[in-house]
Amino acid sequence: MDKSKTHVKAARIVLEGVPKINFYDGGKRCPEDFPFPSSLRACLEYMGESYGCDHLTTPQPTWQLCCTYAYIMSACGYAFWLAWKPGWHMDNNSILSMSADTAEPFRHAFKAIGHEHEFNLKDEKRVNEAYFRRRTTESIRDKGRPVLAFGVIGPPECCIITGYDEHGDVLLGWNFCQDFPESIYLDRL
Description:
Layout: E1 13-14, H1 35-46, H2 68-76, H3 104-113, H4 129-143, E2 147-150, E3 158-165, E4 170-175, H5 181-184
Antiparallel strand pairs: 1-3, 2-3, 3-4
Helix pairs in contact: 1-2, 2-3
């Protein structure tokens, strides 16, 4: 067998350097309190892209002040939306319930940054675990791009899949709520 034609897919690939996402806890970056815009900003930063204003000067050279997060907040409509229902509900600010068309905020965000995207919902017949695993590993392995996903662990919030192990059976990355272990088990309360 000619080994030059044999292609072995790696069991583990991790994209190093994708910025961590989490609720603002101080530091060099502007406060980021919403998972999707923060996750998309981190992916763009990883890919060397910045959107929004770039004319700001910072009081200290160690700050990383840019407007990408705010730009995405505005582009997807998140900055202008909050759902009120009687009583307290954990999903009052969920981007997934922002529009009757669940994909609409994401279309706006990706159009604003000039990137193509694929939006998959669990209830679509073609989207199953095998399809999701294949598309995720292809994006990371073939394109070197992280994947945004919702509800991988904890609350159904946006997270970044930055790698995989065991050929995609194990996902690696950042979850917006990972520093708050109590939030990972909210669905059990």
